[in-house]
Amino acid sequence: MLAARRNLLRDREPDGHGRVTFIELFFDLVFVFAVTQLSHALLANPGPVGAAQTLLLFIAIWWVWIFTSWTTNWLDPEHTPVRAMLLALMLGGLLLSASVPQAFQGRGLAFAGAYVAIQLSRSLFMLWALARQDHANLRNFQRITLWLSASAVLWLGGGLLDGWWRPALWFAALAAETAGPLLGFRTPGLGRSTTADWDVDGGHMAERCALFIIIALGESILATGATFAALEWNSGTIAAFLIAFVASLAMWWIYFDTGAKRGSHAFSQSDNPGRMARLAYTYIHPLMIAGIIVAAVGDEMVLAHPEAEPSLTTTVMLLAAPALYLLGNLLFKRTTAGHIPFSHMAGLGLLAVLAVATPRMPPLPLSATATLTLVVVAAWETLALRRGRPAPRDP
User: Fold this and answer.
1) Is the pTM higher than 0.85?
2) With DSSP H G I counted as helix, E B as strand and the rest as coil, what are the percentages for the chain, rounded to 5?
3) What CA–CA distance (Å, rounded) separates 329 from 334?
């Protein structure tokens, strides 16, 4: 078997975690563009079909990013071959993101081809890097490569076919890839992986996922600022701009004030970090990121027409965004802290009441009420935690 002559794995620090390198941050820049493309795609087609298509593309982009984050959790990006791999993946990610607006029209094969190339080339690189260094993880990536090879057939088939075949095959591919980690990538003749086999650096993984939250929030703020700058500044647009900004602050506070820090601490102290990486960071974090993307779309709708007649689409966007974000945070904190934050449950309850009681509320006051819910949740949790034990420091 072809194998790297040098050890490309990270040196684990016994009393800390591997730092996020500059090349990893550079790699993440592509996903600022990806999040922008997703929000624009949903804004252009906010109906049920458009929402389903955007969800499919979002999950695909998330798998590209999170699989790469798992990879750099094991590999050391300071080595030139690893850097070269990340730079090549950046190009693939840029092509993938550029294909988003027409992924279900004329650029389906481009999207599918870029996706398959990224997923398979990264897995093959891991086989090469691990061949002489880590037999257990090598077997794990042999299973992963076979799973991705099987789903690649569905991706490319969907890219070649039009009509309902494309989303059907792509959803089937994503279903298989989503089930893979849950099933330990069980493969005939190779067995299955267990979370105990996935020896991840908890602090590094937590920091990487927190940075993706920052990417999504940053893109939301940029989109809001760009839209506001192009509009006439009157009482309605100014109010919508301020409400959108406060919502971004509240979302940042809910995750980063204590949740991210406590999660990182619990992760680094876990006796099964692979399990927590799979559940809390691989499967739960997309809920929060989806909430931020939907919030950006809702903010743009309100900015463009703050005093418009109420519409079902705008109402769904304005209420679904904080609901997704709070649900993601609730599940994340339940997994990492071992309890369900009552403030988040109350916030979801308030949003449910809003959905029933205010179906005809104009966009601007509805946006303000939804944002107020986020502010209340942030303040409630902060005060409750300040009265208890202080949040642990990062290891």
Assistant:
1) yes
2) 75, 0, 25
3) 8
Per-residue tokens: 49: 């079909």
Sign of torsion over alpha carbons 268, 273, 277, 280? negative
Residue 15's pLDDT is what? 61
Q: What angle do CA 251, 297, 382 make, to 5 degrees?
A: 10
- Locate 362 and state its tokens: 């104009």
Amino acid occupying residue 115: Y
Residue 395 is predicted with a pLDDT of 41
- Report all structural domains of the chain as residue ranges with CATH numbers, in order of start: 22-193 (no CATH), 202-386 (1.20.1410)
Which pLDDT score is estimated for 390? 46
Query: How crowded is residue 11: how many other Cβ atoms within 10 Å of its Cβ?
Result: 8
Confirm if 344 and 333 have CB atoms less than 8 A apart.
yes
SS3 187: strand
Q: Which of 196, 276, 212 is nearest to 20 (CA)?
A: 212
- Is 131 within 8 Å of 2 (Cβ atoms)? yes
The per-residue DSSP string of 101-137 comes to GGTTTTTHHHHHHHHHHHHHHHHHHHHHHHTTT-HHH
- Across the strands, what pairs with 9? 75
Which residue ranges of the chain lie beneath pLDDT 70?
1, 4, 14-16, 359, 388-395
Phi, psi for 325 (deg, rounded to 5): -65, -45
pLDDT for the residue numbered 199: 83
Q: Which of 390, 292, 388, 275 is nearest to 336 (CA)?
A: 275
* 383, burial (CB in 10 Å: exposed 0-12, middle 13-18, buried 19+): exposed
**From CA 63, how far away is CA 258, in angstroms rounded?**
26
Rounded-to-integer distance, Cα 48 and Cα 324, Å:
17
Which pLDDT tens digit goes with each residue over 244-281? Answer: 999 999 999 999 988 888 888 888 778 888 888 999 99
> What digits encode the pLDDT tens for the residues 346-358?
999 999 999 988 7
**Strand partners for 191:** 187
